[in-house]
Amino acid sequence: MKITFLGTGTSQGIPIICCDCKVCNSKDPKDHRLRTSIYIQLDNQSILIDIGPDFRQQMLRNGFQRVDAVLLTHQHADHTAGIDDIRPIYFNQREEIPFYGEKMVLDDLKIRFGYIFGENDYPGIPEVGLRLAPSHTLRMPKFLNRR
Q1: Predicted local distance difference test score (pLDDT) of residue 86
Q2: FRET partner for 120 with CA separation of 20 to 30 A, picked from 41, 62, 113, 134?
Q3: How many angstroms separate the Cα of 135 from the Cα of each of 2, 23, 79?
Q4: Kind plus residue range of the DSSP H or E element containing 45
Q5: Are 57 and 85 in contact (CB under 8 A)?
Q6: Contact 79, 50 (CB under 8 A)
Q7: What is d(CA 89, CA 87) in angstroms, rounded to the nearest whole number?
């Protein structure tokens, strides 16, 4: 198993816009962090934990081209706003990408990204399957259920 931390910053990333603190003004590359996300690879399969607004940059920076499943920890924009950038991965894979989350997370996605989940077929949308994963019995893809 290989785990890559795509981002370890705050909900606004680091540095923060308009912030004059020591960390935000630092020249140290460790103080330049994208929003939180993790990429897990196991047996030629991959799972993404959270898909924030930095998703495109995170994937390009690491050279990743596949996502077999996405696990959403909660519905805040810093964990979901990158969903539109899953399109090139979907077009490359040509198979539905399951998104796992609690009911309130999935319901929020349906509202905020109605063009993806609505009844009208919007041209160019990715095929994203929403899968209920209650927090007390999180159902992970088979490749992550190994002990």
Answers
A1: 95
A2: 134
A3: 24, 34, 16
A4: strand 45-49
A5: no
A6: yes
A7: 5
